[in-house]
Amino acid sequence: MADKAATKRSARSAKEIEADLAATRERLASTVDELAFRAQPKELAKRSVEDVKLKANDLTHTPDGQLNTEKLGKVLGGVSVTLLALGLLRRARG
Fold first, then answer.
1. Does residue 23 carry a pLDDT above 90?
2. Does the residue 5 lie in any domain?
3. Distance CA 82, CA 90 (A)
4. Neighbours of 34 (CB within 10 A)
5. Number of folded domains in the chain?
6. Is the CB of residue 60 less than 8 Å from the CB of residue 68?
7. What Pfam family is a match, any one (predicted)?
8. Span 38-69, pLDDT tens digits
């Protein structure tokens, strides 16, 4: 069995081997270009911003797309209490 596979591989012509090498080089070049594009700082920042937007949307909306007022109210209430506490502490010190 192994001899048949080896014979089949060696039966390829030089042009077929060159064509395979050229195709492999093209795929490799395309992969390297894609990796270089993905690693650009501008592209990384863009993906990070998109990720934050998606997470914020998931936190503030229900699965059917409606605004989740209960969660939003809790978050805004927490922010208000924090700002009020910071303001009172600042006033007490100053």
1. yes
2. no
3. 12
4. 10
5. 2
6. yes
7. DUF3618
8. 899 999 999 999 999 999 888 888 888 898 88
Question: 93: which 2 tokens?
Answer: 């010190």
Residue 47 included in any domain? yes
Give dist(CA 90, CA 57) in Å, integer: 33
Task: Decide if 2 is inside a domain.
Answer: no
Average pLDDT, the chain: 88
Q: Which of 40, 42, 72 is nearest to 56 (CA)?
A: 72
Q: Is 61 exposed, middle or buried (0-12, 13-18, 19+ CB in 10 A)?
A: middle
Contact 67, 57 (CB under 8 A): no
Question: CB of 67 within 8 A of CB of 61?
Answer: yes
Residues 67, 60: contact at Cβ < 8 Å?
A: yes
